[in-house]
């Protein structure tokens, strides 16, 4: 199993979706889970809504519980890709316990490196399919037809937390709460830094190579 780390907008979701399709293992994104629950107006959705909209982190205990439940599902037995979790040291420690309990070894942590300027460009042009969650960008990865998903014909929308204020706040939260994880995983010898300011094909290729080394 592999963790993708990196600032919001670095491309964790886009890369995770590609890797998931190529490797045939699930892509688990806490952000996607929360957005689905918010859309459904479920209890969990109501609990996380205000945090997500403001670009604040959802409380650790709640996120840990969601992940624990997700990782018990059958499809996780052969490995999985975590995107957006862990996001704090406390979550990383909780994850270690969960993985130990289920005897799932953590193979690699890949840090997607992208400059802050590029992050802001990526986030402010990002569009998501309301139906299947596919990610587009108005200039970097435009859909064939404006506002329509290439894969399912669904409507594309801009996330509520992709506004300039929420983006700025998410970056502050990232530096303060999530960046310390780089040192945490580096100390465990698991961290690989990957420059992601290249084409998606190139960075996906590099990730596959990193993961191949692990499987051998
Ligand atoms: P991004 O990485 O672009 O900021 P995500 O889709 O990963 O976006 O997450 C969106 C929001 O969901 C976060 O800003 C936060 O409110 C919440 N969230 C997602 N994952 C976590 C987590 N592991 N811990 C706390 N909050 C989370
Ligand atoms: Zn779609």
Question: What's the number of extended β-strand segments?
Answer: 8
- CATH class value: Alpha Beta
The CATH superfamily is known as P-loop containing nucleotide triphosphate hydrolases
List the quaternary state of the chains. single chain
Write down the Rg. 17 Å
Describe the 3D structure:
The structure is a single chain. By secondary structure, this protein is of the alpha/beta class. The chain has a single domain (2-114, 164-215), classed as Rossmann fold. Helix content is 50%, strand content 14%. The chain has helices spanning 12-23, 30-40, 43-54, 60-71, 89-101, 116-124, 164-178, 180-187, 200-215, and strands spanning 2-5, 27-29, 81-83, 108-113, 126-129, 135-137, 156-157, 191-195. A five-stranded parallel sheet has the order 2-3-1-4-8, sandwiched between helices. The chain has a three-stranded antiparallel sheet with strand order 6-5-7. Helix 4 packs parallel to helix 5. It is globular, with a radius of gyration of 17 Å. The chain starts with a strand and ends with a helix. Bound molecules: adenosine-5'-diphosphate and zinc ion. Residues 8-9, 30-31, 34, 51-52, 55-58, 63, 84-85, 87, 91, 161, 170 line the site of adenosine-5'-diphosphate.
Short description:
By secondary structure, this protein is of the alpha/beta class.
Summarize this structure as a short list of keywords or feature phrases.
14% strand, binds adenosine-5'-diphosphate, binds zinc ion, Rossmann fold, 9 helices, 3-stranded antiparallel β-sheet, 216 residues, alpha/beta
């Amino acid at each position: 199993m592999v963790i993708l780390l990196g600032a919001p907008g670095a491309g964790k979701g886009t890369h995770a979706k590609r890797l998931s399709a190529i490797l045939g293992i699930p892509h688990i994104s806490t952000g996607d889970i929360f957005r689905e629950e918010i859309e459904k107006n479920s209890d969990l959705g109501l609990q996380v809504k205000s945090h997500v909209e403001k670009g604040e982190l959802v409380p650790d205990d709640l996120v840990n519980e969601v992940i624990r439940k997700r990782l018990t599902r059958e499809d996780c037995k052969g490995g999985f890709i975590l995107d957006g979790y862990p996001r704090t040291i406390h979550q990383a420690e909780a994850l270690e316990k969960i993985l130990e309990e289920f005897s799932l070894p953590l193979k690699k942590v890949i840090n997607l490196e992208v400059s802050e300027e590029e992050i802001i460009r990526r986030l402010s042009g990002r569009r998501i399919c309301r139906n299947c969650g596919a990610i587009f960008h108005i200039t970097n990865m435009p859909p064939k037809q404006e506002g329509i998903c290439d894969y399912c014909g669904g409507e594309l929308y801009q996330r509520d937390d992709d506004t300039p204020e929420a983006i700025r706040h998410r970056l502050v939260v990232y530096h303060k709460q999530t960046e310390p994880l780089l040192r945490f995983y580096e100390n465990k010898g698991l961290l690989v830094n990957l420059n992601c300011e290249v084409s998606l094909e190139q960075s996906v290729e590099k990730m596959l190579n990193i993961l191949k080394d692990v499987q051998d």
